[in-house]
Specification:
single chain; 409 residues; alpha+beta; four-stranded antiparallel sheet; 45% helix; Tick transposon; DNA/RNA_pol_sf; RT_dom
């Protein structure tokens, strides 16, 4: 096994390959229609805005102004998301081209962990590193192989034994811990020593847990933490471990199948909760009115006053709606040749018409595209009319209405 790390990830992200990976993530890995409806712009417009944002960083050097050609600002909110999307594409391309000598590739942010089959893997390291450089589109990579049967990966040190692998919490950085005599509050200092001791116990195997725990104790003592403070953290840690063990041994807390959520009703809900506890069923009570629903209720009431009813209203903000929004309708789309297309949808009519428009591009697989090709006519989406509306009607009832209407026409 060996590890590969990306050098200066944010500074070296190539813009062209990054935009391509973002486009693939939206169009292939997610719902393009839902994304466009959620952000209010099309995918192409979103990519243009993102490209403008990435290339708007100006740097002044010796009186000259330069525009950033690659990389993303570290303080940017989109930097972690963009880097994760790009490295996801790199990870996918690398895995698809690996040979049989590599068993598994794991990634945590910009650190890769590679498992190999052979003990002598010097040639494999060169091949894999070359593959990373090829798929990285300009990214720089460094690698680390085991030294003295030990390999450091992030804050964990792996010790390679003959029949097993041991691991322990061992921070790579040699910086001292925050001194106890600093001006920080006791809450911050207690959190530091507790997190160090907690990581030493829960990020270390049973064979090395003693050495790891004592090493963290020594680090804390060197930073001015007294034995009384450490003793309080150890007692807190013991309580934490006992509570964790209680949760693991209690089937009522670990079995998710034996849990029921019911609306809260005065007296009745607590009675049901007491009865369910006799059969080891955990009952949770949900509030009927929540703070997050207030804005939605007000919006629906205001929309109902404007339209006369709060039913059949669409919550999607369309950029260019073709017709007024309606939900749960049987609709009729006319052609220039005089024929009409009748369909039904339980969603917003504008979403369905947008899907019809996209089906006209490329190969004519849809009914609208085939009819337009055969008769040489055009589809008049702007003249679409609703011939039946019922918000409570199911799909079967709308299909019946649309079929009956089509037979009559």
């Amino acid at each position: 096994m060996f590890s590969i790390d990306v050098e200066d990830l944010y500074y070296n992200l190539p813009h062209e390959a990054l935009m391509h990976s973002v486009k693939l993530c939206i169009t292939e890995d997610n719902d393009e229609m839902a994304f466009a409806s959620g952000c209010g712009v099309s995918v192409g417009t979103f990519l243009e805005i993102l490209s403008f944002y990435l290339t708007s960083t100006n740097v002044e050097w010796k009186g000259n102004t330069f525009i950033q050609r690659s990389g993303v600002c570290i303080g940017s909110k989109v930097a972690p998301v963009l880097s994760n999307i790009f490295l996801g594409m790199v990870d996918t391309n690398v895995k698809s081209r690996l040979g049989d000598s590599v068993m598994k590739v794991l990634r945590y942010v910009d650190d890769f962990f590679i498992f190999v089959k052979d003990l002598d893997f010097s040639d494999t390291v060169k091949n894999v590193l070359g593959l990373f450089h090829e798929c990285g589109r300009g990214l720089k990579f460094t690698y680390e192989v085991p030294q003295n049967s030990q390999l450091q990966f992030l804050d964990v040190n792996l010790k390679l034994c003959e029949k097993h692998v041991c691991w322990q919490y061992y921070p790579r950085s040699n910086k001292p811990i925050l001194n106890f005599n600093s001006a920080h509050s006791k809450v911050v200092k207690n959190g530091i020593d507790f997190s160090c001791l907690f990581a030493a116990l829960f990020k270390t195997c049973t064979h090395l847990i003693s050495d790891s725990f004592l090493r963290q104790i020594e680090r804390l003592r060197c930073s001015g933490f007294s034995d009384d403070v450490l003793r309080m953290s150890v007692q807190k840690l013991i309580k934490r471990m006992k509570s964790t063990r209680t949760i693991e041994t209690n089937p009522m807390l670990t079995n998710k199948d034996k849990c029921a959520v019911i609306p809260y009703a005065h007296k009745l809900s607590h009675g049901l909760k007491n009865v369910a506890s006799r059969f080891n069923v955990k009952v949770l009570l949900s509030a009927p009115n929540k703070m997050k629903n207030i804005c939605g209720i007000i919006d629906r009431k205001l929309l109902g006053k404007r339209t006369g009813s709060d039913k059949n209203c669409c919550k999607v903000k369309h950029t260019s709606p073709v017709v007024p929004c309606r939900v749960g309708v049987v609709y009729q789309v006319p052609f220039s040749c005089g024929h009409v297309y009748i369909g039904q949808t339980g969603r917003c009519l504008n979403i369905r018409l947008m899907e019809h428009k996209r089906s006209l591009d490329g190969n004519p697989y849809s009914h609208l595209a085939r009819h337009r090709t055969e008769h040489g006519c055009t589809v008049m989406f702007e003249k679409t009319v609703c011939i039946f509306t019922h918000s409570d009607a199911g799909k079967l009832w709308r299909l019946f209405i649309s079929t009956k209407r089509a037979l009559v026409v």
